[in-house]
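Please review this one:
***
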Amino acid sequence: MTKILVVDDSPSLRQMLQIILQNSGHDVVCAEDGKQAIEIVSEVQFDLILSDFNMPQLTGPEFISRLRQLPQYRFTPVILLTTETDEDKKQLGRDAGASGWLKKPFDPEQLVVTVNSLLN
């Protein structure tokens, strides 16, 4: 079973993502911000990470930059979930090491397709 980390400061969105991904056969752990996520990834290895862009403590790009410094996470797929559509923000995500970008609100089926394609 693949392990997915969901990082988002919205409790309702974390819960929704957890349900969608668990119903698709994934083991899901949630973090409420990038700071908590860094603590979690130091103890557990994940196969894929979904991260919000705008969060307190560490933004999505800041979290991804720190994550990419850990040898075991250099090549782990990371998808940014965000309402941001500005090209500069997308570039910030790419520069930090994001593997992909999904715009909120997202289609649950498209989310599952995207996640599964990055895991295969």
User: Anything to note?
Assistant: The chain has a mean pLDDT of 95.
